[in-house]
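Researcher: Please generate the 3D structure of the following complex. Treat every line as part of one assembly.
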Amino acid sequence: MTGLTIHELGAAYRRGETTPTQVVAAYLARIERLDARVGAYLTVTREAALRAAAAADARHRAGTPLGPLDGVPLAVKDVLCTRGVRTTCGSKILERFVPPYDATAVERLAAAGAVLLGKTNMDEFAMGSSTEHSAFRPTKNPWDLARVPGGSSGGSAAAVAGDLAAGAFGTDTGGSVRQPAAFCGVVGLKPTYGRVSRYGLVAFASSLDQIGPLGQDVRDAALLLGAVAGHDPRDATSVDAPVPDYAAALDGGVRGLRVGVPREYFIEGMDPEVGRAVREAVETLRGLGATVEDVSLPTTDYGIAVYYVIAPAEASSNLARYDGVKYGLRVGGAKDLIEMSSRTRAAGFGAEVKRRIMLGTYALSAGYHDAYYGRAQKVRTLVRRDFARAFERVDLLVGPTTPNVAFRLGEKEDPLAMYLNDVFTVPTSLAGLPAVSVRCGFSAAGLPIGLQLIGRAFDEPTILRAAHAYERATSWLARRPSLA
Amino acid sequence: MISRDDVVQVARLARLELSEAELERMRRQLDGILAYIDQLKALDVAGVEPTSHAVPLTNVMREDEAAPCWPQEEMLANAPDRAGELFRVPRIIED
Amino acid sequence: MSATVGTGWEVVIGLEVHAQLLTRSKMFCGCPAAFGAAPNSRTCPVCQGMPGVLPVVNRRAIELAIRTALAFDCRVNEACRFARKHYYYPDMPKNFQISQYEEPLAEEGVLEIDAEGASRPIGIQRLHLEEDVGKLVHEGTLETARASLVDYNRSGVPLMETVSKPDLRSPEEAAAYLKSFRAVLVYLGVCDGNMEEGSLRCDANVSLRPRGATELGTKVEIKNLNSFRNVQHALEFEVTRQRRALEAGERVAQETRLWDADRALTRSMRSKEFAHDYRYFPEPDLVPLTIARAWVEEIRAGLPELPRRRRQRFVAQHGLPPYDAEVLTQSRALADYFEAAVREFPQPKTVSNWVMSELLRVLPADDERAIQGAPITPARLGGLLALIEDGTISGKIAKDVFEKMFRTGDDARAIVAREGLTQVADEGALAAIVDQVMARNPKAIEDYKKGKTAAAKALVGQVMKATGGKANPGIVNRLLEEKLSKT
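Model: Done. Output below.
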């Protein structure tokens, strides 16, 4: 009963072949059996899930389901606030924090009838690309438990890949949905900045953060996005524009679509298997009727540098509130407030978070502000211009999601080496554009490879349509990890 | 190159207590990352407007309507230390 | 005053005033902005800075700030934005304050103050919006407290910060600036001006320089100036302190000092071995504002007449003495009250006398709400004055009627009728009483004839007494005069 896509589950409920309670119970049992090995979840909300499933049962029985997600078991990254359910952000400092409110996305999922199975593991405060920076435990890649699932939404990606949830949500600041989606071979979408409300998403870098879905296929991702997208008066940066029916826009193929392939996305040092798989995918799209063009995004190389100024700067500000005063951890025995806060933060934050707080504080401090933060903001403008120029000629861009497949746990000890993993995902985040990662093959070692499709602002329908056409033309989804 | 004193000063601004060993490791790592970031200096950004928001929105405001507040107990429930209706903090010494 | 006059030093003062805006809700969330409630009962996740929450700008706060900016003839910037200002303090839940930095709402204005009988324009450098912080209660004093307690009710209340140019030249001028400033804000209805409750707070920058010098001396910031008196006293103290230091050949340290009103001195707050580094950057959770000219003009059209102009008009149009005009324009409510009463009873000086001597005996001139809610409406005051005018009651009785009106809220005519206070104006009846009084007081008549005119006054008093004060004094005087001349 686990392993069905969301749209298959919906059909099964409609036909009365199974019930939300049966499915949710099956997922809970599977989590119980397997998650000790995968480590996808930080919190499993068993009782609440069964209650929600029973309510969904009743609606389905009455023939009045709330929509395609009614009774569908989902997992959300532990960076989205859940009323009455602890929200840790993968950090010791929030280990016991229980929000009195739901994130807007969580609220909308509940309103759509989705059943929350639990909160997934992540790199602390979403800072990382491997989920090894979780303060609690690493998450393993279901395709190879010796490898990382990517990050920071590694728990959500692993949950979907390992059939520990029918679908999931993560957050993407510089690639944190797309990169783990690529590493775990699932579909991961970062929506346009402003498409999904950030209210209740514990901020890492406010001008970059977006909530995005992870699904088993493109249709699932479209259904999940549709449930959470849309204007929210509580988020001043959420855009008041109509939400298209993403699932309905999937069909139509790619004939006539102009696909741009950025030449900077095929770099030296990149895994040749990835390059090969992506080029083959481009050929598949061409074969389906798309026209393919070579384009250039000259500032690609600077993306990581810009990102590692702006994101830490904003993070240093967003994380200032964790001081042991109002909520979360407090280290006792300090002689005064400054000592208490400094020790609390020293004990509560992990090494990566401290590094970024330090980096961001430095980049904003007097004497360095213009050279780092000021300059990075200007280069961010150049990155946006690159995309704007490219989108004058093409309808979407296609390239690899990551330069390599999932690496081994502990393999990337140097922080900079880890950062460079985000080279193809960061520019899109800086420009606020939508991008989706879909499976486009496997390495010789049997690890999935991700294809990234990047669209114009608010043009999720086009990238989803192209991804869907590609998915239907290939058979990569047939392969599944063998967890048990 | 970022100096040890810089790191001490930044740690103070960021309210992070760092041990001697952490200080030096932090200095080294920040130095490496900053050296990488310094490639931005090669770009000509004269006359380029800074980007602080990815989506060009303006004038998002709410009407001045008072909503009910949250229950006091809910707002105090996460407090690490409290005195009745108030959050309690160790004594304050200005820095 | 000795601190500023007759020395070779020029005093240079600039004021930063923080005013809480009279909005219903807070700056970035829907919690009520009103003062006073159980600690931490007027908060929500947003104003308590919980993880994941986001601010949304209160349109009314922007409007009130534009209103103020226009009253000060400031340039309202077409583009403005919010920025984060970072420092750690436990009364500030996010450990940054959403404020404005590089692109404030308005700049370059002017406030006219009256100093030593003349008017002087004081420059306003900038006006911007920010959020207030919570309140700290120390267990003991700040220095000795083992712990401090935090109440976030005030956190997020809209604050408007207005920074003057260093144009003020004496502590008196600083106090005059603050008074004018407060009057304008109260007039505009943007702030209640209550300094005790902290709705209006003032910090000062003060420095001395040799007279004639163009460069500014080292400035000292003084915090905690929460009354007009404190502003003047603290600055006087500080000017003397700095002058003594300079005359002794010492240097004035650039620092922040706290005014201790109880001990009447300023003292250094912990020295800043470690200067603040606020690390401002544009608030990513709020988008920029572009203030449309049409909006500004709409707000301008709704601006009330400001106290200074109104004061001048009261003199020119109503023929009031400048003193009266000054008293009556202390608050918009009072000036409105006066003008409404004048519409009912078009004798401005009489109305002014009654407002100043009677109404302001029972109500504070600057309490907008009390004046607005006065139990004697302007129309009723006009009605009372009309009864004096037409001789129904005497001025003396009218004062009693005023008190009764204030107590009961009834109108003058009803009280006069109910209590039989109408003047006895019946000549026949009064003539009989005059005759009786004259018959009983032959001695007074004798005295009068000898040229003691005071004796006639005594007789008037007797008649008034006999009528319980209700006799029309004009008629009594005339009758007595006639009768005395006949004897």
